[in-house]
């Protein structure tokens, strides 16, 4: 048995220091979400300048998504055992090193390796900032900060292509999309020096971390996603290479599940999913990831490669989604803090998400760009009302010493959802482009025709997310950082009873 670990602010954290800490954490979310999407606008220029293949160019996105997905639960588990501020500094240092190498790369392989390190570090920043929020602020007060967090994340995710387009068109070129991380990371490191200290009022949980399970999860997810991404291009789906990759990935994931169930300190909080709230939140965040994460890539390809817009113009259309998300995030965050109730807000957000996805499914090759911007604005409202607040619901349902694990798991599911759908649709897109161009259709027309056919898929996943929100019990956000005696509150951790008033 290991001692329960709780974390408290130093007594009490002065408001000024708390604000500095929050600014640093929000800036951390910005750098993570921004750098995850900047590369999208730079892909054509990178392929041309480095004389890379199309597969290598696509892999710049795929390797980042895979790295972020498999690293999130590991960072989350480490955050429960090691000072998360120390870990955040390590992640920021990783971003600095990777950004410098990527910005000066002269070879596609070097760029790919630096991109993987970059993504591993970004995953740490995203997970650890969420953990630190949970350690510093009670779930009820966290609502308004989550508004800022969700808004900044949306701004980075959807504003990244626009900013990336501006940078690519500037004298900095594509290398600037990596170099921009350097001053941002340095700024956050400086802010952390002036942030409030975090003290632990009990011995740190030193139980052995399940690195075997984490390695099996990483290997399994990577193998399956590589198979999904490159089947039909690098190898045939039924070839020995393809089936070996798929089989190895499935076996690794099955063994990982067995290891996780038997380990006393697993990477993935499988036992916590027995609670109703964490279980439904996990399904919802996976579905929300599938509705939002691939949009930046495919909308960008549709507008640039299919409709002929410049990178900055395409990014400006995508920014409509960020605007919607920013506005709704602030609204939901403040309402959650004022009322302490989350379920009604999530239901409304899920409904808007379904409406936005339905409208998006009506897009066709000649859709007016102003209409597309309006649809993205509505979709952004749904994303802003659900994405981070689903994680908040899960955090509220577990004791403080489980927050890192559940947060990392939620980040893993959200990224994994986007990665799987992106990989599947990316493979289909490649095959359809070849087929249509062989039939005599121009490449831009092939892009404009094929990509809108993908959007109806998002309606299904938005509906699944909404169903999960409807099935949630009443959630009362607690006003204390930890649950009483470190145990989940009745009605908030998946018990059928209603939350206590």
Describe it for me?
The protein is mainly alpha-helical and 501 residues long. It starts with 6 loop residues before the first strand and ends in a 30-residue tail after the last helix. Helix 2 runs antiparallel to helix 8, helix 5 runs antiparallel to helix 14 and helix 10 runs parallel beside helix 15 (403-438). The protein has 17 helices and 2 strands. It has helices at 15-49, 54-81, 84-103, 108-136, 139-169, 176-179, 181-193, 211-230, 240-262, 276-292, 295-306, 311-339, 343-360, 369-396, 403-438, 443-450, 456-471, and strands at 7-9, 198-200. The protein has a two-stranded antiparallel ribbon with strand order 1-2.
Offer a few descriptive terms.
501 residues; 73% helix; disordered C terminus; disordered N terminus
Helices and strands in order, then pairings?
Elements: E1 7-9, H1 15-49, H2 54-81, H3 84-103, H4 108-136, H5 139-169, H6 176-179, H7 181-193, E2 198-200, H8 211-230, H9 240-262, H10 276-292, H11 295-306, H12 311-339, H13 343-360, H14 369-396, H15 403-438, H16 443-450, H17 456-471
Antiparallel strand pairs: 1-2
Helix pairs in contact: 1-2, 1-4, 1-5, 1-7, 2-4, 2-8, 2-15, 3-4, 3-7, 4-15, 5-12, 5-14, 8-9, 8-15, 10-14, 10-15, 10-17, 11-12, 11-16, 12-14, 13-14, 13-17, 15-16
């Amino acid at each position: 048995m290991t001692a329960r670990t709780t974390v408290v602010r130093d007594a009490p954290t002065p408001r000024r220091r708390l604000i500095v800490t929050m600014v640093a954490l929000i800036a951390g979310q910005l750098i993570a979400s921004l750098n995850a999407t900047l590369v999208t606008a730079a892909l054509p220029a990178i392929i041309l300048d480095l004389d890379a293949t199309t597969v290598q160019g696509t892999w710049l996105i795929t390797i980042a998504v895979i790295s972020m997905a498999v690293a999130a639960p590991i960072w989350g588990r480490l955050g429960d055992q090691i000072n998360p501020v120390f870990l955040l500094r390590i992640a920021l240092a990783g971003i600095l090193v990777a950004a410098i190498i990527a910005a000066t790369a002269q070879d596609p392989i070097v760029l790919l390796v630096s991109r993987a390190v970059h993504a591993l570090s970004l995953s740490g920043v995203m997970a650890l900032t969420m953990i630190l929020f949970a350690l510093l602020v009670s779930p009820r007060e966290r609502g308004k900060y989550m508004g800022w967090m969700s808004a900044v994340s949306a701004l980075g995710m959807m504003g990244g292509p626009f900013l990336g387009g501006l940078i690519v068109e500037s004298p900095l070129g594509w290398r600037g999309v990596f170099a921009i991380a350097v001053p941002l990371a340095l700024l956050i490191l400086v802010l952390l020096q002036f942030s409030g200290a975090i003290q632990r009022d009990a011995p740190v949980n030193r139980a052995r971390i399940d690195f075997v399970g984490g390695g099996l999860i990483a290997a399994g997810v990577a193998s399956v996603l590589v198979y999904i991404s490159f089947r039909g291009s690098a190898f045939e789906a039924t070839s020995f290479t393809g089936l070996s990759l798929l089989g190895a990935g499935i076996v690794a994931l099955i063994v990982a599940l067995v290891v996780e169930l038997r380990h006393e300190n697993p990477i993935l909080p499988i036992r916590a999913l027995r609670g109703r709230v964490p279980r439904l939140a996990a399904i919802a965040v996976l579905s929300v990831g599938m509705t939002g994460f691939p949009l930046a890539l495919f909308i960008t390809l549709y507008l640039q490669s299919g409709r002929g817009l410049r990178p900055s113009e395409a990014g400006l259309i995508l920014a409509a989604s960020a605007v919607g998300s920013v506005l709704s995030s602030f609204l939901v965050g403040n309402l959650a803090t004022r009322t302490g109730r989350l379920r009604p807000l999530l239901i409304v957000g899920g409904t808007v998400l379904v409406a936005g996805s339905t409208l998006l499914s009506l897009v066709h090759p000649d859709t007016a760009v102003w209409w597309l911007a309006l649809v993205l604005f509505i979709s952004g409202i749904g994303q802003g009302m659900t994405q981070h607040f689903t994680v908040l619901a899960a955090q509220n349902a577990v004791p403080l010493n489980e927050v890192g694990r559940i947060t990392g798991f939620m980040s893993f599911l959200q990224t994994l959802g986007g990665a799987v759908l992106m990989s599947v649709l990316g493979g289909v897109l490649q095959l359809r482009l070849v087929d249509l161009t062989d039939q005599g259709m121009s490449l831009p027309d092939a892009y404009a025709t094929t990509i809108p056919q993908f959007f109806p898929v998002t309606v299904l996943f938005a509906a699944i997310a909404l169903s999960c929100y409807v099935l949630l019990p009443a959630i009362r956000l607690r006003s204390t950082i930890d649950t009483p005696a470190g145990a989940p509150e009745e009605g908030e951790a998946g018990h059928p009873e209603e939350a206590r008033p």
